[in-house]
């Protein structure tokens, strides 16, 4: 297995720059693993492939407006900070620009002085920085970030959003992620209500999505790739719902690769069930992985040579998945975060 096995040519014209309106009107490529057949549908048709008692698992994280623009306290030079992960109260891992001028000891001013950030350390593994923030108002650091920060859209989306909520799911809760769980962007409140009325259950997990999700694998052997850790939580009621659904012969449908990683990180092989779990996961799913918690997957079309394409190839089989991508390219599906969706059964 080589990284080149997960490569394909993605025309820039197929990279979606804005979401479908309404959200559930996007296209849906249905992939049947047993038969190898494809159906071309709309996302609003998803319920036709689900049965009463099936369980849809959603990642309920929201995106933090994590891109901050400021200036260096000593020179007034412009500085940009992209928050990735909170290490402790007011302390964050972040990417910075310009990196060579933002070294330990440098202080950056944000929001007309309402917030300052002191560069504490260089993070050797990512090249990022550890930054200690201080609020100079009565608000918390998170509250100020929410007020002054910008939505950190993926680098391949070049058009500004007219509404930042378009990069949020309708069911998200706490703002903790640097990127959206994009498979969930296709759901509307009305669609979720229709699924519930049809007897389809839902459950929630948390996985704080990091920017590593957009980074192609550079190593020739994907097994040598270092995947960053991400915080996840599978509550007890979700674990019980998953085990009950599978125990009664119903499907567990993960919405997005992040939901897959959360559920499989909480799967106890010895007990053959999902358990309540919370912590950091660096689970890297490659072909050959044995799935214990997930029976079907809703996902988007992913970047070439990415860990996400490797994950869906592990779930569906590499040959079938690359054939599905070839069909999607021929049929001019829209790709990546704001693009169309795939249902793998």
Task: Describe the model.
The protein is an alpha+beta fold. It has two domains: 243 residues, QueA-like (3-Layer(aba) Sandwich); 82 residues, Beta Barrel (Thrombin, subunit H). 18% of the residues lie in helices and 28% in strands. It is built from six helices and 19 strands. It has a nine-stranded mixed β-sheet with strand order 2-1-19-18-14-3-12-13-17, with helices on one face. α5 crosses α6. The two termini are 24 Å apart.
List keywords for this structure.
single chain, 345 residues, alpha+beta, QueA-like, Thrombin, subunit H, 9-stranded mixed β-sheet, 6-stranded antiparallel beta barrel, 6 helices, 19 strands, globular
Mind sketching the topology for me?
Blueprint: E1 27-31, E2 38-42, E3 55-59, E4 62-63, E5 67-72, E6 78-88, E7 91-97, E8 107-110, E9 115-122, E10 129-135, H1 141-148, E11 175-177, H2 189-197, E12 201-207, E13 230-234, H3 236-247, E14 252-255, H4 257-265, E15 267-268, E16 273-274, E17 277-281, E18 296-300, H5 307-316, H6 318-330, E19 341-344
Parallel strand pairs: 1-19, 3-12, 3-14, 4-11, 14-18
Antiparallel strand pairs: 1-2, 5-6, 5-8, 6-7, 7-10, 8-9, 9-10, 12-13, 13-17, 15-16, 18-19
SSE run: EEEEEEEEEEHEHEEHEHEEEEHHE
Helix fraction bin:
10-25%
Biggest β-sheet, characterized? 9 strands, mixed
Q: Structural class, from helix and strand content? A: alpha+beta
Termini separation (Å)? 24 Å
**Inertia-based shape:** globular
Q: From the 3D coordinates, which CATH architecture of the largest domain would you assign?
A: 3-Layer(aba) Sandwich
* CATH topology-level fold name of the largest domain: QueA-like
The total beta strand count reads 19
Low-confidence runs = none
CATH superfamily of the largest domain: QueA-like
Number of domains: 2
